[in-house]
UniProtKB/TrEMBL annotation:
Domain FAD-binding FR-type intervals: 16-159
Protein name, entry field: NADPH-dependent ferric siderophore reductase
A Pfam family matched in the record: SIP
PANTHER family the record matches: FERRIC REDUCTASE, NADPH-DEPENDENT, NADPH-DEPENDENT FERRIC-CHELATE REDUCTASE
Amino acid sequence: MAKTNMTATRVAAQTEGLVRAQVLRSARFGHSFQRVTLAGGNLEGFVPLGYDQWFRLFLPSPAGSLERVPAKLDTLAYLKYLALPKGVRPMLRNYTVAAFRPGGPVGPELDIDFVIHASPDGAMGPAARWALDAAQGDKVAFIDEGLGFNAPAGLERVVILADESGLPAAAGVLASLPRTATGTALLEIPDERDAREINAPSGVDVRWLVRGDSAVPGRLGLEELKGEPIGTEEFYAWAVGESAMATGARRHWVAAGVPKRNVTFCGYWKASTGH
């Protein structure tokens, strides 16, 4: 289970029910991402909220079916989903809206960025493999889950920490912040080619931290964060990505006196080697 405090503070989704869509295109994005663009279905009913809007994405089962997808994911529905035989159970993963365009050539378009990297034994995750193989017309479904980013009203100074798994969310947050916002964004990536244009407020210092493919994910970002002066001005702290990085950031901020109400963190995944 992901380590996070987002459950208690998240902003509720405004899109009701199951959204079905189809792959419009799939292409490599930077060094470490495959960007899959969705369109069609009932995507016109999706309500974009900006920031780190995320959703539960259902990909076809090994049998190629999406027939057993639940319309919601409360406790009962989730238990029924888990009870499905693995051969017919759709794959379920959490992803962030990388971009949403309401007026594409064929209607609304939604981008998802899949991180493409292999585990130490060379195996690739099933969602990454699906993204690489995705073809136009392939069907998916998702349930909107709203936002994790929820800064206290009036607080416009931010400190953001993310690795590549949290980069789409961080980019969405930076693009959605008031243009008067200030602060720092530390973005750790495995390769310099993963740096992308970020629509951040001019008062936010965006720093790319290139760790290389062989370094422990999250370590560079956490070390850089710990070297930053906390200062006396109140700020909202937000850290997402590798679990040890995100939880380490929270411990650092709280130990430095940042109010817990001003800290949001989520471990999206766990590296196979420790920090």
